[in-house]
């Protein structure tokens, strides 16, 4: 296991990630992914897309990251997307008040759920001090701080807008069009991978809590009454669950079970959420998360976001702490209902009945020649209000008069003028608001987990070596190619031709002819390159075909094989059709001095 410091140093030294804008003093909460990190992140995103978009049969979109204020009035983020802020009067540093409590009080794991007033009290009761300067924080006010970055769209005073705090809203606001592309048929899923922004009070722990990060989200739109997930595909998947009941129990334990049993035993109440936990478990295993350091934890009630009816987090263990790397929320009809209420568009789908239904419908046909003179400009609204009342409370038309309200004014109308009737109508279907189930992954936190779980040390040639045991699919580079001696033209020709040939076969290659060969191996080990190929004099000598050595990262074992066979063998390994062990059975093992200087 890597210490945070060792991993951060390696990340910086080898170009995975580092604090952004360092030339200008740095900006807390913003990180740049260097060449290795960007490649690793791209591979994680590609693997996610392959699973959650392509394999699940979903469609991907790319929406803008800046959205106008009404979107977030509707979504609830303007009112409810807050963290608890406390500022030190002495040094002016800002802190997450709930985190201070969690760090200081052993049996409080979710202080956010306690509310601002209680957290303020706890800070007083426990005499908490500012972590930066040590000044007393008791008596300092705790406030809700909205995490969205505000901006202005257009010149002048512009239109108020915000950087999206979750990619999801870009999918929800486009639902009226997206449902058309899905031909109005539920269920369907839309994915998006892209940046999200949160003005975190105290960004910390490297790329784990930052102010700009990448999310990979899937919004699955379902008919809650009819649509079932294909649970049979994941029912035997084994998972480690930490439900609310166990978190509350004094001797609470993890539940080791299968997805199928967790649904049968009602540990996970939504089959859709369970289905996505099963798919995610397989995906995390595939990309290289250590499954002994992984669990699904259910949100406590006070922890759930304002939109979530139930939520489970995927958590990975990092340096002895559990961090949330993805959330799986049952968002119900919250988002589409809110956008339907706040916008001009329709956020429903038309659900056709198997057979047309005959139903009784209460309706009005107001006499506008009477309403117009009586109510003037309000007559149209009064007619609409009468129709709404007929649908919601037909008995209101039993008397001689009926009263409706519109724009805060009451209007009394003669029932004869309203022309109320109940008619039989044939209906082919109804408009329903789909429910949403959402797997939401943090890409940066996944990258960090993979690095931490892959970090390894061993002894090679009597030296301690650090290597990243990354899954080949995820490693930034597939193969490194070295000419053993950097000023030998014959070796360079073979090595650079080989690099070109491998690249043409779709394999990503790092060509390196600088420094000692031992150092070159160490460099590649530290960035997790699964294979190194060395072109040496032995392979070029003699009348036989040219050979090269192939070295596998984790075992440091080397084989000699014909250069003409290398591309096909490596392609087979990367496609999962062959293992390095199979090559070991067929090719000569070499213990030459090519690993050392
Ligand atoms: N649309 C749902 C949503 O945004 P979330 O739990 O707030 O849910 C989803 O975020 C994921 O995004 C988290 O599980 C985490 O991996 C990542 N994430 C959230 N805030 C983050 C931050 N400040 N820095 C890095 N990653 C973050």
UniProtKB/TrEMBL annotation:
Database matches in InterPro entries: aa-tRNA-synt_IIb, aa-tRNA-synth_II, aa-tRNA-synth_II/BPL/LPL, Anticodon-bd, Anticodon-bd_dom_sf, Gly-tRNA_synthase/POLG2, GlyRS-like_core, tRNA-synt_gly
CDD domains: GlyRS-like_core, GlyRS_anticodon
EC class name: ligase
Entry keywords, A to Z: Aminoacyl-tRNA synthetase, ATP-binding, Cytoplasm, Ligase, Nucleotide-binding, Protein biosynthesis
EC number, as in UniProt: 6.1.1.14
PROSITE patterns attached to this UniProt entry: AA_TRNA_LIGASE_II
Source taxon at top rank: Archaea
Localization per Swiss-Prot or TrEMBL: Cytoplasm
UniProt-listed GO biological process terms: glycyl-tRNA aminoacylation
Main location: cytoplasm
Coiled coil feature spans: none
GO cellular component: cytoplasm
Aminoacyl-transfer RNA synthetases class-II family profile domain segment(s): 5-472
Gene Ontology MF terms in the entry: ATP binding; glycine-tRNA ligase activity
Family: Belongs to the class-II aminoacyl-tRNA synthetase family.
NCBIfam families: glyS_dimeric, PRK04173.1
Designated name of the protein: glycine--tRNA ligase
Organism expressing this protein natively: Halonotius aquaticus
Species lineage: Archaea, Methanobacteriati, Methanobacteriota, Stenosarchaea group, Halobacteria
């Amino acid at each position: 296991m890597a210490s945070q410091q060792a991993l951060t140093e390696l990340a910086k030294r080898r170009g995975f990630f580092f604090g952004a804008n360092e030339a200008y003093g740095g900006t807390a909460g913003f990180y740049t992914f260097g060449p290795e990190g960007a490649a690793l992140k791209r591979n994680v995103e590609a693997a996610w897309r392959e699973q959650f978009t392509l394999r699940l049969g979903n469609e991907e979109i790319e929406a803008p990251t800046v959205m106008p204020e009404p979107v977030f009035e509707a979504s609830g983020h303007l009112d409810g997307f807050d963290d608890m802020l406390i500022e030190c009067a002495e040094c002016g540093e800002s802190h997450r008040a709930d985190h201070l409590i969690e760090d200081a009080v052993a049996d409080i794991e979710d202080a956010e759920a306690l509310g601002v007033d209680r957290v303020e009290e706890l800070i007083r009761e426990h005499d908490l001090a500012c972590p930066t300067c040590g000044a007393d924080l008791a008596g300092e006010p705790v406030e809700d701080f909205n995490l969205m970055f505000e901006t202005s769209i257009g010149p002048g005073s512009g239109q108020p807008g915000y950087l999206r705090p979750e990619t999801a809203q870009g999918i929800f606001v486009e639902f009226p069009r997206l449902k058309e592309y899905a031909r109005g048929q539920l269920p369907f899923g839309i994915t998006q991978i892209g940046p999200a922004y949160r003005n975190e009070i105290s960004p910390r722990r490297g790329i784990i809590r930052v102010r700009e990060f990448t999310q990979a989200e899937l919004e699955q739109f379902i008919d809650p009454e009819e649509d079932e997930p294909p649970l049979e595909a994941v029912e035997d998947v084994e998972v480690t669950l930490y439900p609310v009941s166990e978190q509350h129990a004094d001797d609470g334990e993890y539940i080791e079970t299968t997805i199928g049993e967790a649904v049968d035993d009602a540990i996970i109440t939504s089959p859709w959420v369970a289905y996505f936990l099963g798919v995610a478990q397989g995906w995390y295993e595939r990309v290289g998360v250590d499954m002994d350091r992984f669990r699904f934890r259910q949100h406590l009630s006070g922890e759930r976001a304002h939109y979530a009816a139930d939520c489970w987090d995927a958590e990975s263990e990092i340096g002895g702490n559990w961090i949330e790397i993805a959330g799986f929320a049952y968002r119900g009809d919250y988002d589409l209902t809110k956008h339907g209420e706040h916008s001009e568009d329709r956020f429903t789908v038309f659900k056709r009945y198997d057979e047309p239904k005959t139903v009784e419908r209460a309706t009005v046909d107001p006499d506008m020649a009477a309403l117009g003179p009586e109510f003037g400009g309000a007559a149209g609204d009064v007619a609409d209000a009468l129709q709404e009342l007929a649908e919601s409370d037909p008995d209101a038309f039993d008397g001689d008069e009926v009263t409706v309200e519109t724009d805060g004014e009451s209007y009394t109308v003669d029932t004869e003028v309203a022309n109320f009737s109940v008619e039989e109508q044939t209906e082919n279907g109804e408009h329903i608001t789909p429910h949403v189930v959402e797997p939401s992954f943090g890409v940066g936190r996944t990258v960090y987990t993979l690095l931490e779980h892959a970090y390894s040390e061993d002894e090679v040639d009597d030296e301690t070596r650090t290597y990243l045991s990354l899954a080949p699919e995820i490693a930034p580079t597939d193969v490194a190619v070295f000419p053993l001696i950097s000023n030998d033209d014959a070796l360079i020709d073979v090595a650079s031709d080989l690099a070109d040939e491998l690249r043409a076969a779709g394999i990503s290659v790092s060509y390196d002819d600088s420094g000692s060969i031992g150092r070159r191996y160490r460099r590649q080990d530290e960035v997790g390159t699964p294979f190194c190929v060395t072109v040496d004099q032995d392979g070029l000598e003699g009348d036989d075909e040219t050979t090269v050595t192939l070295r596998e990262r984790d075992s440091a074992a080397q084989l000699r094989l014909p250069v003409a066979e290398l591309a096909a063998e490596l392609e087979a390994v990367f496609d999962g059709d062959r293992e390095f062990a199979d090559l070991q059975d067929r090719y000569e093992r070499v213990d030459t001095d090519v690993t050392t200087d």
